[in-house]
Write a structure and sequence with these properties.
Layout: H1 5-10, H2 31-37, H3 42-47, H4 49-63, E1 68-69, H5 76-80, E2 85-88, E3 92-95, H6 102-107, H7 117-130, E4 136-141, H8 143-152, H9 160-168, H10 170-194, E5 198-203, H11 211-227, E6 236-240, H12 243-251, E7 257-259, H13 266-271, E8 278-283, H14 292-305, E9 312-316, H15 326-338
Parallel strand pairs: 1-4, 4-5, 5-6, 6-7, 7-8, 8-9
Antiparallel strand pairs: 2-3
The structure holds coproporphyrinogen III.
Coproporphyrinogen III binds next to β3.
Length: about 350
């Protein structure tokens, strides 16, 4: 795998064109996803290795992307620790037993890796299907983002309860984050052991945090997780919404790649990072709603801006929205794959 476009770009080696994959590529914008989804619940899909493999392979077979991402969810760590997790159409993820007190935190279990064995099993099935063609990315949620779901009991607009908890009861917040971080490191090592070729840590909602709070309640734990990975020759990608602000700090956690949101010029932010840290990004996903001529123009504009830069992986600044036309995503991948530096 070390010769693949994706791994070479992740390790800042020379490439003939940027590799492409997209966050949430294994999901709802594909009609074929719905054919599977209509038969099973989301968690059933995650927990049945053959089905998780089928969904992982959809964008590989239908789009021809340069890296696959494991079909799962960032909240499976919270579930394994004792969260009562469900996903409802139109509502999203929900923990029916939110974590709000010291007793709630004490009840959360950290000896849970065996409960996530289904993920290792899925990885093995996926690797058989991929058969060495492209790398497989494993992933986990960052402790702050997972904590926000555990505390709020689901998605949140303003993270009011999470922030209140951090600000009024910082010791308890740290106890909770430390527990999640321990499980997350073990979980990612399980994925590495099972055969993933790269790791991405999703801190989707870090953007909600002030600089000092990001440092104390998020960055600290991501640093700890990355330092505890049995990395071998596996690149680690750090993603957050808010990376246009936090990237220089994120680099201190020693990832190989930082995934950048679309609020910043990618070349400018790359030049503010240490030598050898690659960037991933950063097309505004809304561009994929636009006319094909616009899609092509914006991709070319980004690629020209990054000409001569080593360590660049194409991605969106955040995930594909479920109602983006499949045809537009397919077109974007074609434009990218035809490009040559
Ligand atoms: O990227 C991929 O294609 C791989 C699979 C993947 C999923 N979730 C599948 C999924 C990954 C990497 C995730 C990560 C994830 N999950 C994140 C971080 C990524 C990001 O976009 O910031 C977050 C915040 C979650 C939590 C979560 N899970 C949310 C907010 C939702 C959707 C709520 C909604 O209805 O909009 C989910 C459910 C989910 N995870 C779906 C998929 C395909 C949709 C499930 C369905 O079919 O209804």
């Amino acid at each position: 795998m070390k010769d693949s476009l994706f791994i070479r770009a992740a390790f800042s080696q020379q490439i003939e064109r940027p590799p492409v994959w997209m966050m949430r590529q294994a999901g709802r914008f594909m009609p074929e996803y719905w054919e599977i989804k209509n038969k099973y619940s989301f968690l059933e899909m995650c927990k049945t290795p053959e089905i998780a493999a089928d969904v992982t392979m959809l964008p590989v077979d239908l789009l021809g992307i340069d890296a696959a991402i494991l079909f799962s969810d960032i909240l499976v760590t919270g579930e394994a620790m004792g969260g009562d997790l469900s996903f409802t159409q139109g509502v999203g993820p929900r923990f029916s037993n939110p974590v709000r007190t010291k007793e709630d935190i004490d009840r959360l279990d950290t000896e849970v890796i065996h409960k996530l064995q289904y993920v290792a099993d899925a990885i093995k099935v996926i690797q058989q299907r991929l058969n060495g063609s492209i790398p497989l990315i494993g992933f986990a949620g960052a402790p702050f983002t997972v904590m926000s779901y555990l505390i709020e009991g689901g998605s949140s607009r303003d993270f009011k309860l999470t922030k209140l908890f951090m600000h009024n009861q910082p010791e308890l917040a740290h106890q909770l984050l430390a527990k999640i971080a321990k499980v997350t490191a073990g979980y990612l090592n399980l994925q590495i052991e099972a055969g993933v070729n790269a790791i991405q840590i999703f801190d989707s909602w870090a953007q909600a945090l002030a600089w000092d709070d990001y440092k104390e309640f998020s960055h600290h734990y991501i640093t700890e997780i990355i330092s505890n990975l049995n990395r071998k020759d596996i690149p680690v990608i750090s993603f957050c919404k808010g990376s246009s602000v936090f990237a220089p700090l994120m680099a201190e956690a020693k990832p190989d790649v930082i995934s950048i949101d679309w609020n910043v010029d990618l070349k400018d932010i790359k030049h503010r990072l240490p030598q050898g840290v690659a960037v991933q990004g950063n097309l505004d996903p809304h561009i994929l709603y636009a006319d094909k001529s616009v899609i092509k123009d914006r991709i070319h504009r980004l690629f020209e801006r990054m000409r001569g830069e080593e360590g660049f992986i194409f991605n969106l600044g955040h995930g594909i929205m479920p109602d983006i036309p499949f045809d537009n995503v397919k077109y974007a991948v074609e434009v990218i794959k035809e490009f040559r530096y």
